[in-house]
Amino acid sequence: RKEVEQDPGPFNVPEGATVAFNCxxxxxxxxxxxxxxxxxxxxPKLLMSVYSSGNEDGRFTAQLNRASQYISLLIRDxxxxxxxxxxxxxxxxxxxxxxxxxxxxxxxTLQVKP
Amino acid sequence: xxxxxxxxxxxxxxxxxxxxxxxxxISEHNxxxxxxxxxGQGPEFLTYFQNEAQLEKSRLLSDRFSAERPKGSFSTLExxxxxxxxxxxxxxxxxxxxxxxxxxxxxFGPGTRLTVL
Lengths: 114, 117
Hints:
The complex is a heterodimer. Chain A is mostly beta strands. Helix content of chain A is 0%, strand content 52%. In chain A, the strands form 2 sheets. In chain A, strands 2, 4, 5, 9, 10 and 11 form a 6-stranded mixed sheet that branches. A 5-stranded antiparallel sheet of chain A has the order 1-3-8-7-6, with no helix packed on it. Chain B contains no helices and 11 strands. The radius of gyration of chain B is 14 Å and the shape is globular.
C-alpha cells in the first residue's frame, strides 16, 4: 500500500463546477496534513493546512477524518486559474519524536475548461 | 527575492559523471530538505537537515548520493556515477518555526532538472 494515495485523475470540469479530491494515508501516527498546489513545470506551493475540525479558505474546503485516515479537498466555483496538480501531503513522524518528513501523494490533476 | 534558490536550474550530463547541486534556503530557515520528483509523481523525500545536522535519510538514497550543509546555511547534493534512472527534478525546500509557521510548512525552490544521457 502506498503511504499516501490519490486518484491521479485528470479531472476535467467546466468553469463554475464544484470538484472534490480525496486522499488516504497509511501512518496512523501522522499529525500534520496539507494540500499543496503544483503548476506545470513549477515547484509545489502550500495551498492550505488541514485541521481535524475542517477548515475553509475562500472557495477551498479541506477536511480530515482521522478514523478513516482520509483527507479531502473541495473546490467550489472552479476558475480557469485553478487548473493545476493538487498534492496531498502527510507528515510521517520519526521514532525519535522529530516532526519528521513529509510524504507526498502522486497528485491529482485538475483541468478547468471554459 | 528572498525565496529558496537552486543552482543550476538545468543540468545535462553523461552517464557515469558526477554532478553537484546547490540550494540556498530562505534566510534563517534552520531546516532544509531535498526531494526528487519524476514525471507524473509527487516529490519523493530524500533527506533533511536541521542546521548542519543531517537528521534523516531516505532508504532510497543510495551510496552514490550525498548531501551536506556544512555551515547550516546552503546545502549541496552530490550524485556520483550518475545513471539514467537519476534523471529527475531535484527540489529543495526549507522551513522554520519562526513567525508562527510549523516545520511542516515547507517552501520550495524552483528545482534543478537533471538529465542523464
